[in-house]
Amino acid sequence: MFSNFKIYNQIFVRILIILICFGCSAYVFQYGLIYTSIFICVVTFLIIVELYLYIKNAFVFYDKTIQAILQNDFSADFSKHKSFTSYASLFKLYENLKENQNEQISKDIIYRSILNNIETGILILQKEKEDWNIFLMNDYFSTHFKVPKVSKWHYLKNQLPSLCSIIEEQNFNEIKTSLQIRVNKQDTQTFVMQSSRTRTFHQEYYVVLLDSIQKVVEKKEKEAWINLMKVISHELLNSLTPIRSLSQNLHELVQQETLSNEDLDDMKQSVQTMLNRSNHLQQFVESYRKLAMLPTPQKEKVALTEIIQNGLQLMTPLFKKENIEVYNLVSFNRWLFVDKLQLEQVLINLLTNSMYALSNKTNRLITLSAETKEKRLFITITDTGNGVEPEIEDKIFLPFFTTRKEGAGIGLTLSKNIIEAHGGYLTYQNNDGKTTFVICLME
Hints:
Layout: H1 7-30, H2 34-70, H3 88-116, E1 121-128, E2 131-137, H4 139-144, H5 153-159, H6 161-169, E3 175-181, E4 189-200, E5 203-212, H7 213-254, H8 261-292, E6 300-303, H9 304-321, E7 325-328, E8 335-338, H10 340-357, E9 365-373, E10 376-383, H11 411-421, E11 425-431, E12 434-442
Parallel strand pairs: 7-9
Antiparallel strand pairs: 1-2, 1-5, 3-4, 4-5, 6-8, 9-10, 10-12, 11-12
């Protein structure tokens, strides 16, 4: 009945029929048609009962659907009710919310899968009133620290008191530190801990990341070895391939019964080429040995100005030849406890690097400056060269990496090793078209 009407239209029609029936009953009663009037009243009563049941069922259906939405229960199937156009908007709302929930669940599964496959301990806490509960603990955290995936903070505190006490001492604020954790009476392991606190949609979360220092070091060592082996294998193949080819050629020539003058010339040229490549390989190995066997710094008390002046004095003839201007802006002196010869070598290497960087420039300028800050001495060497291309910035300190055909690729690596042996560091900066190398030493 009225299947194509909206609910409010159906209710209006029923009320209108009831009113008409009451009017008809009163009308026929006036003419003494008592039984007819009673019959109409009975029909009216039945229509009222039907109206009540219809309204009740409509509200019950709506109420059940709303309760299902509020409880995130989207298991119902409304396909059999598709003909009920009165509920079209409700069905559409339900299906949209169901689709959004399924999409959210899919994303949640993907995110959790990603987090569970990361070799970093991840712990996410969610604040509820004044307490913190565990929102997420990835597989690595649970497996590495032998902790079950508990949901309450005090359970985790019983399992990992060293970690939880640090977090509580900082009042669940952002932390970046290292800590030692013992797992099941095993050897103590050192971890780098980073945490952050964030709020979203009236919910507050606390994210903790734990990286094993041993894992980080092993990863960096592996990357360094891979890069080093690439360079070494490339250099060896560049020499061994032509040597092997020339050896085969010589072998074929000596198998002949007679040798022409042209054959003798080929043999001389082949032997000379093999000698040159062998010399190059020897130099390459010597360079590697120099890096691998860096002597321990023989430290002595020496003036900063003396080191800089000695380095500039050795490089001055080359600077004049290349028309390079050098400004020494170091206006103060400091006594350093360093290996004088090694530090001079670093200065010469960096100045040489700057000199080659200026080879194709019209404005050829090198500036030396120094400053002290927080008990550290910073020596900067700046040139107006082209700088280092962004794609090779992370390779300039690798052994044997060079952009010059005649370069050996050990100058910057050797310099970095020397400064680190003195307890400092060497960094590179590229600002406003100027290239700067910074030497940092403890005073």
